[in-house]
Design goal:
The complex is a heterodimer of chains A (264) and B (500). Chain A starts with a strand and ends in a 19-residue tail after the last helix. Helix content of chain A is 34%, strand content 23%. In chain A, strands 6-7-8-3-9-10 form a six-stranded mixed β-sheet, sandwiched between helices. A four-stranded antiparallel β-sheet of chain A has the order 2-1-4-5, covered by helices on one side. By secondary structure, chain A is α/β, with parallel strands linked by helices. Chain B is of the alpha+beta class and 500 residues long. In chain B, the strands form four sheets. In chain B, strands 1, 6, 7, 10 and 12 form a five-stranded antiparallel β-sheet that branches. A three-stranded antiparallel β-sheet of chain B has the order 2-5-11, with no helix packed on it. Chain B has a two-stranded antiparallel sheet with strand order 3-4. In chain B, β8 and β9 (246-247) form a beta hairpin. In chain B, α8 crosses α17 (471-499) and α13 packs antiparallel against α15. The two termini of chain B are 72 Å apart. The chains are: A alpha/beta (264), B alpha+beta (500). The A-B interface holds A 46, 49, 51, 75-83, 85, 87-94, 102-107, 110, 113-114, 155, 158, 162, 168 and B 402, 404-405, 407-415, 417-418, 421-423, 426-427, 429-430.
């Protein structure tokens, strides 16, 4: 169970990215965060594993205070939280296998990992993860030789080898076309259902939200403006949609949109 | 309407007049300031340069008019062309101002084309371009050129075996002239007839009075081969005999015998050495024995080339060593934290730019004074420049790393060190390797130039050979430089291609 209490983030330049955000996520949920670019989705996700330090508020995960953790403790927490990015964030010049193995860094002896040595079990685990996302044969390729969809699958494999209890996915399909989007979200859904991994995912397209989310929160200007269950989002009206996305927004089918949106 | 037109014509004539008085003035008044300034400054500078050239050509004349006549006499084509050009530009410039006011037509670029033409003519004269000389004197360049292009004759030689025999000659004649040398069977042997005589002398008018003619008989030399004759004076100076400017050369017959007449040479003897002296005639025969020896130029070139490559390598290594820490200070993304780090960033950048803008050649001049002639001076010069150049390139590589992977590796629970090793280093290695190899390539090329000012390496050798007019030896050095540079170029391109 993840509890976010009164979370606020103000950047150095004075931008208030999050204001008093509070919500709860039960284990095994597929929570989708919706909102315009700049509404604070990315900041929120990065505050949960403290890639960005929140200014105020608390995050409790399975009873542990993430916000109070020291750096060693924080690393322990982080290794149980997989993260997937809009731009995949792979080390482009390294091999696919090495990118996936990077997911095991939190578990390996720092000295061995620095000279590029991983236990055999970890390498097995990495191959297994690549098998699960269907690109085992690409293991020795350089990451930048892969297509966008394949690169995101490497990103998922990297998260998988962490043996995560939770996955944070920041616009995982915004750089991909709709067909690939379903494939990538399919993997996340599978992990969510089969391994009971909690998923926090920010998305842009309403029909993807309607298909995959078990609960939804909507952000606008750093504030939670919408909370809903799977049923709520299915019944979501244009009025509510516009509350989140602003007056000028139209309800757009994912089929008409193709990638390239910047995340917030 | 007519009034406006008249007014317009008046105004345009006025502008034309301005431009006629001072070129470009009309344009400036019209508001086309840039065009006016360019016209004004180019015509003024053309005029001044022209006057300078006239003064220079007629610098011995008392006044400018005479100087002008003189220069017209010396360089009629140049003077008349420039005058025509200047007048044409002057008129066009006035016309330009006139048309601009009258028809509102913006001037074209014809006038600037003419400006360039006149500058071209001036440049032709100032830089003493002379195609006639270039073509007529071409044959003179052929010898050095052919030697530089194909220097290998000087690279290796065959080992020579010298056989010789000597006979004594008394000068001037007197009592007890030396007899024939003793003959050893099977050994080369010569004798002269007569065994005494007078050396050639100079008379009062510096005309040579020829000395006694001697006949040299030789035996037991190698058959059918050349024999050179040498004269050895009483104090042991050896010189090859010449007869009327040509070396004395003869050939043995099939039995290895020869016979040749020689005139006793002219020798400047110190007054203290007056009196009867024994000179010697020596016949020498040089025959290749087949063994090949590498000549000094080739040996030296190879050793200096190795020195040069290592100079480049050492300078690159020192450059890398110092550039890496400096590059972190010069990377904006790492140094934008606070105003202190930002100040360090700007200072580092400024120092790097200053050091980089000073040519290695100048560093070499300083280093030669500092540590003396030799490769170490060259290494210092190249290292300074390398640190600055690599520091800048590295810092730009650091600035352009993708922050995404860093974030991703951090998110897996990795430590700081792991993050650097897995997210930063893989992104840095390719540009670092690429820049470093490229720098080595540049340093080896530069070290040949550094040698010219005394920084050691092959350039040092090359400049010595050039000063000695030893074109073949210089050619060998040039060949090795070209081969090494081409090879390094290929290797570095190949390595860089693999890394990027």
């Amino acid at each position: 169970m993840l509890v976010v209490e009164n979370l606020s983030k103000t950047y150095e330049d004075g931008t208030r990215a999050l204001r008093n955000v509070s919500f709860e996520v039960k284990d095994g949920e597929f929570l989708v965060i919706i909102g315009l670019s700049g509404s604070g989705k990315s900041t929120l996700l990065r505050c949960i594993n403290r890639l960005i330090e929140p200014t105020e508020g608390r995050i409790l995960w399975d009873g542990e205070d993430v916000t109070a953790a020291d750096s060693a403790h924080l690393r322990e927490i982080r290794r149980k939280i997989g993260m997937i990015f809009q731009h995949f964030n792979l080390v482009k010049r390294s091999s696919v296998l090495k990118n996936v193995l990077a997911g095991r860094l939190g578990y390996t002896n720092p000295i061995w990992s620095i000279i590029n040595r991983f236990p055999t079990e970890d390498i097995e685990l990495a191959y297994e993860a690549l098998r699960q996302v269907g690109i085992e044969e690409k293991a020795d390729k350089r990451a930048d030789e892969l297509s966008g969809g394949q690169q995101q699958r490497v990103g998922i494999a990297r998260a998988l080898v962490q043996d995560p209890k939770m996955i944070l996915a920041d616009e995982p399909v915004a750089s991909l076309d709709p067909v690939l989007a379903h494939s990538i979200l399919g993997y996340l859904e599978k992990m969510n259902q089969e391994r009971k991994i909690t998923v926090l995912c920010s998305l842009h397209y309403l029909d993807l939200v309607q298909k995959y989310a078990t609960s939804v929160i909507g952000l606008r200007d750093g504030q939670v403006v919408y909370r809903g269950t799977r049923e709520d989002i299915r019944r979501m009206t244009d009025r509510e949609f516009k509350d989140i996305y602003g007056e000028e927004a139209e309800r757009v089918s994912a089929g008409t949109l193709t990638g390239g949106r910047e995340n917030g | 309407m007519a009034e406006t037109k008249g007014k317009n014509t008046g105004r345009s004539l006025l502008h034309a007049l301005f431009s006629l008085i001072l070129p470009g003035l009309g344009q400036i008044i019209l508001g086309e300031i840039q065009r006016g300034i360019i016209l004004m400054s180019s015509i003024v500078s053309m005029g001044l340069i022209f006057i300078w050239r006239i003064e220079l050509a007629g610098r011995h004349e008392p006044n400018f008019l005479d100087a002008f006549h003189k220069s017209l006499e010396l360089k009629p084509v140049f003077i008349s062309l420039v005058i025509i050009g200047l007048i044409a530009i002057w008129i066009l410039n006035a016309l330009d101002a006139y048309l601009h006011t009258k028809k509102g037509r913006r001037g074209g670029f014809n006038i600037f084309f003419l400006v360039i033409v006149v500058f071209f003519i001036l440049g032709w004269e100032i830089s003493e371009i002379n195609p006639y000389k270039m073509i007529t004197k071409a044959p003179e360049a052929l010898t050095p050129l052919s030697r530089v292009l194909w220097p290998w004759k000087a690279a290796i030689a065959h080992k020579m075996e010298t056989v010789s025999a000597r006979a004594a000659v008394l000068s001037p004649c007197g009592e007890n002239p030396p007899g024939r040398p003793k003959e050893v069977p099977g050994k080369p042997y010569i004798y002269v007839e007569p065994t005494c005589g007078e050396l050639s002398k100079l008379d009062k008018n510096n005309k040579i009075i020829e000395g006694t003619t001697l006949t040299v008989f030789g035996k037991n030399f190698k058959p059918n081969s050349e024999v050179n004759l040498w004269w050895i004076d009483p104090i042991g100076n050896e010189f090859r005999l010449r007869q009327r400017g040509e070396y004395v050369v003869t050939k043995t017959d099939s039995q290895g015998n020869f016979k040749i007449k020689i005139i006793m040479p002219y020798r400047l003897m110190p007054p203290s050495a007056e009196g009867k002296q024994i000179h010697h005639v020596e016949a020498r025969q040089q025959t290749p024995t087949g063994a090949v020896v590498i000549n000094d130029p080739l040996k030296l070139t190879i050793s200096r080339m190795i020195e040069t490559i290592f100079m480049g390598m050492m300078a690159t290594i020192f450059g890398i060593f110092f550039a890496i820490p400096i590059s972190f200070l010069a990377a904006r993304n790492l140094m934008s934290g606070s105003w202190i780090t930002l100040t360090i960033y700007y200072m580092t950048r400024t120092v790097l730019n200053i050091v980089r803008s000073i040519e290695p050649l100048i560093w070499a001049l300083i280093a030669v004074v500092w540590v003396g002639l030799g490769p170490f001076a060259g290494i210092i010069a190249l290292s300074f420049h390398s640190v600055a150049a690599l520091g800048k390139l590295y810092s730009e590589a650091i600035e352009s790393i993708d922050p995404g992977p860093i974030e991703a590796i951090q998110a897996t629970g990795a430590t700081h060190l792991q993050t650097i090793m897995y997210a930063v280093v893989p992104q840095m290695i390719p540009p670092f390797v690429s820049f470093s190899i490229y720098r080595w390539d540049i340093n080896v090329r530069m070290s040949t130039v550094i040698g010219l000012v005394g920084g050691g390496g092959i350039g040092f050798l090359l400049v010595q050979y050039i000063r000695l007019l030893d074109y073949r030896a210089a050619g060998i050095a040039v060949w090795f430089i070209a081969l090494t540079v081409a090879m390094l170029d290929y290797v570095s391109a190949e390595i860089r291609r693999r890394f990027v």
